Amino acid sequence: MKPISIIALALGLILGSCAADEVAEGPPEISYGRDICVECGMIINEARYAAAYRLPDGTEEKFDDLGGLLIHGHKHGELATAEVWVHDVETEAWIRAESAWYVMTEDIDGCEVEKEKGNSLAQYQNFQKEIVA
Questions:
Q1: Sequence ranges of the domains in the chain
Q2: Angle subtended at Cα 21 by Cα 1 and Cα 66, rounded to the nearest 5 degrees
Q3: Residue 51 backbone dihedrals phi, psi, to 5 degrees
Q4: Per-residue pLDDT at 76 exceeds 90
Q5: I need a labelling partner for 14 at 20 to 30 A (CA). Which of 5, 25, 65, 96 fits?
Q6: Global pTM?
Q7: Which of 91, 45, 41, 105 is nearest to 68 (CA)?
């Protein structure tokens, strides 16, 4: 093997190992209809219910709903260090979990699937609805 080939190979290996240490930023990518919830094993079909987190080492966990994320994260002690993402149930935009508003209810306007699933937690980026006690 020529010396230039050895140098090129060595540089490629060094640069490749550096890139592997980088941790992604922003919300994890979910392939809806293909990715599986790590907690319950169901296919993640709907963005508005999906949630995910990323650990400091770059490990990403994806869930079909926030409840699965909370159960899994608590069982494995990962929530304290995880970067947690949820979707706004109306716009389906990703938002950081700590900046979301959460509503506990059994009747969310326009969320028939939410009631069918038996969940009673919805997350919103901007809470603009009037709460009636």
A1: 22-124
A2: 140
A3: -145, 160
A4: yes
A5: 25
A6: 0.66
A7: 41
